[in-house]
């Protein structure tokens, strides 16, 4: 073989060696991909072994337990022995089927809604509106039809019968006589004593004046000279201390009836004191006494002095009560007689109390004048007229008649189910709630609304047909998802929906589904009729797929091994031939070099 031929052959072998190496590398990579595929198939199979599905349990009429895979339709489909659930989205809306949504939109009232499911039949009757009658009766009384028509009756009733009448409105004018009989006698009882006490600064003389008020017996009034019979006389203060009046305290002209009058005539001072006429009221004086009594830091002597000079006394319950005139006289007598021991300054505190006491006596004789109070009657009459107009305006806004809907249930249990659903979609009202800015379907006529009761709308609350976020209480769940168990399970597990269950708080045979029923949020994991079990179908499917995948991988791996084996044999043969030709070429080059050297 010539040199050129050898070189061409060598290049050919080199090319084939490179090609074999590339093919080997490709197959090796393919085998690595098979290993990764094996790992993935194994992981999928392991996941399938731990897969579960949510199941929903119900009972048939015989009490036999039935289980089906949990879905929105399995929850929402009525059955007799079954808890009622609703699927709730994150906006707080119940997700209903397309059928339930269509029935709701086409229903003006709860009765219409129930009729669409064939669970009740409604009879509609026009009758007088009780609310209208109640309002008219409130305005005119039981004869409201006569008054409403412009007539009259002998005994008007209601608000009409409470028209203010002039004789019922009077005002009392109070007149106090500063020259009362008692005060006059008090000042005249001992002119010199009074003057000495108030003007000359001799407080002991005031005791003579006070003694005339306390010497209340007819015998005391009958003395002429010397000591009257029955002395000394003892009186107790409101604080329990006592005073003693002897004959020396009764001097000058008697404050009571003159001595020559009949002893049967009751002295003025005796009548005033025994009738218990109270001393004059003084709110500031009372509050000061209460504050001092309740303040533990108050000096006991200061409190005692205040109690003696006050018009009030603290009773056993701790309340301030006005003293009688007699109590006030005794306490003041004691304060004057014991002023030094009590530490009461005569020219300030004591003399002020004496003057205040005298002013109290000027208020004892009061006369009252009663007369018509026309302004008060006019104001009351104007207020009554305004109220009458207001209530008549309310009456005129009401429907005199209404449409009464009587329901006859063909299936009470099923009816209760759809009653609950209506209230969850509509709110508490039995007629379609009207919502500004929302298309909420049929509307009830005015008479039906009057029968069922108006409802305020527009605020964002379930009671007014809206969620707290201002959306309708319901939304449609398309049938594809409504019937899909996998969607509901994933949504529950991911928290994109929750469940609400109907709870009967006070179940009754004729329950309205409103007062006795509540929709309460519940975790699906806490629902006793929802369980979790292994998904045998998914496990079986995964096992079949895993086995088929492994079998396919093993077959391809074997094929790759055979190809690699052939490539290795061919590679060895080519390498041997490559080495032989290269040796020949090296020798040929060496001969040629020697020939030309």
Describe this structure in words.
- The protein is α+β, with helices and mostly antiparallel strands and 597 residues long.
- Helices cover 50% and strands 15% of the residues.
- The chain is built from 22 helices and 16 strands.
- A 3-stranded antiparallel β-sheet has the order 2-1-16, covered by helices on one side. A 3-stranded antiparallel β-sheet has the order 3-14-15.
- A hairpin with a 5-residue loop joins strand 9 and strand 10.
- The longest helix is centred in the last third of the chain and has 60 residues, at 536-595.
- Mean pLDDT is 78; it is low at 218-226, 257-263 and 507-513.
Q: Give the neighbour order of strands across the main sheet.
A: 2-1-16
Sheet-strand content, in percent, reads 5-15%
Low-pLDDT parts are: 218-226, 257-263, 507-513
Q: Please, what is the average pLDDT?
A: 78
* Total DSSP E strands: 16
- Spatial separation of the terminal alpha carbons: 23 Å
Q: Key features?
A:
3-stranded antiparallel β-sheet, alpha+beta, 597 residues, 16 strands, 15% strand
Topology:
Layout: H1 3-49, E1 52-59, E2 65-69, H2 72-76, E3 85-89, E4 94-96, H3 98-105, H4 110-116, E5 120-128, H5 130-140, H6 144-148, E6 170-176, H7 181-189, H8 191-198, H9 204-214, H10 218-221, E7 233-236, E8 242-245, H11 268-274, H12 283-294, H13 300-309, E9 312-314, E10 320-322, H14 325-337, H15 339-342, H16 346-362, E11 366-372, H17 374-396, E12 401-409, H18 412-426, H19 446-452, E13 474-476, H20 479-482, H21 485-494, E14 497-504, E15 517-522, E16 530-534, H22 536-595
Parallel strand pairs: 4-13
Antiparallel strand pairs: 1-2, 1-16, 3-14, 5-12, 6-11, 7-8, 9-10, 14-15
């Amino acid at each position: 073989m010539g040199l050129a031929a050898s070189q061409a052959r060598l290049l050919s072998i080199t090319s084939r060696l490179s090609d074999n190496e590339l093919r080997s590398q490709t197959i090796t990579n393919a085998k690595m991909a098979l290993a990764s595929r094996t790992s993935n198939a194994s992981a999928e199979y392991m996941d399938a072994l731990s897969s579960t599905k949510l199941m929903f349990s119900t009972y048939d009429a015989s009490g036999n337990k039935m289980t089906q895979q949990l879905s929105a339709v399995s929850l929402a489909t009525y059955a007799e022995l079954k808890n009622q659930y609703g699927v709730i989205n994150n906006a707080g809306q119940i997700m209903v089927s397309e059928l339930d949504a269509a029935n709701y939109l086409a229903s003006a009232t709860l009765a219409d809604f129930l009729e669409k499911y064939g669970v009740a039949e409604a009879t509609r009757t026009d009758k007088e509106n009780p609310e209208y009658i109640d309002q008219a009766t409130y305005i005119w009384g039981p004869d409201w039809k006569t008054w409403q028509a412009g007539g009259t009756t002998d005994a008007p009733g209601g608000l009409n019968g409470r028209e203010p009448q002039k004789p019922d409105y009077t005002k009392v004018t109070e007149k106090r006589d500063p020259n009362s009989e008692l005060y006059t006698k008090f000042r005249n009882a001992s002119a010199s004593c009074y003057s000495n006490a108030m003007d000359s600064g001799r407080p002991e003389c005031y005791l003579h004046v006070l003694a005339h008020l306390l010497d209340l017996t007819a015998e005391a009034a009958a003395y002429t000279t010397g000591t009257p019979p029955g002395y000394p006389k003892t009186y107790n203060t409101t604080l329990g201390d006592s005073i003693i009046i002897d004959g020396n305290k009764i001097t000058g002209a008697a404050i009571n009836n003159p001595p020559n009058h009949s002893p049967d005539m009751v002295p003025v001072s005796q009548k005033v004191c025994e009738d218990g006429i109270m001393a004059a009221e003084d709110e500031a004086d009372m509050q000061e006494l209460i504050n001092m009594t309740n303040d533990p830091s108050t000096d006991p002597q200061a409190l005692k002095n205040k109690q003696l000079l006050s018009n009030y006394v603290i009773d056993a319950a701790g309340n301030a009560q006005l003293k009688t005139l007699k109590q006030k006289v005794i306490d003041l007598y004691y304060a004057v007689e014991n002023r030094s021991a009590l530490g009461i300054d005569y020219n300030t505190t004591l003399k002020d109390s004496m003057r205040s006491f005298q002013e109290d006596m000027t208020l004892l004789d009061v006369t009252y004048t009663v007369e018509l109070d026309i302004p008060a009657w006019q104001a009351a009459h104007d207020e009554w007229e305004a109220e009458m107009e207001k209530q008549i305006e309310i009456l005129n806004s009401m429907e005199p008649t209404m449409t009464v809907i009587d329901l006859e249930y063909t299936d009470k249990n099923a009816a209760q189910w759809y009653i609950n659903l209506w209230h969850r979609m509509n709110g508490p009202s039995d007629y379609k709630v009207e919502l500004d800015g929302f298309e909420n379907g049929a509307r009830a006529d005015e008479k039906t609304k009057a029968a069922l009761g108006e409802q305020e709308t527009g605020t964002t609350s379930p009671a007014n047909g809206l969620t707290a976020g201002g959306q309708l209480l319901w939304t449609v769940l398309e049938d594809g998802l409504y019937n899909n168990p996998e969607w509901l399970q994933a949504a529950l597990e991911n928290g994109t929906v929750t469940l609400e269950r109907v709870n009967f708080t006070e179940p009754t045979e004729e329950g309205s589904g409103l007062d006795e029923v509540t929709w309460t949020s519940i975790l699906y994991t806490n629902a006793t009729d929802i369980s979790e079990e292994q998904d045998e179908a998914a496990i079986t499917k995964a096992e079949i797929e895993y086995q088929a995948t492994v079998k396919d991988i093993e077959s391809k791996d074997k094929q790759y091994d055979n190809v690699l084996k052939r490539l290795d044999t061919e590679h060895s043969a080519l390498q041997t031939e490559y080495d032989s030709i290269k040796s020949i070429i090296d020798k040929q080059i060496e001969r040629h070099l020697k020939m030309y050297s």
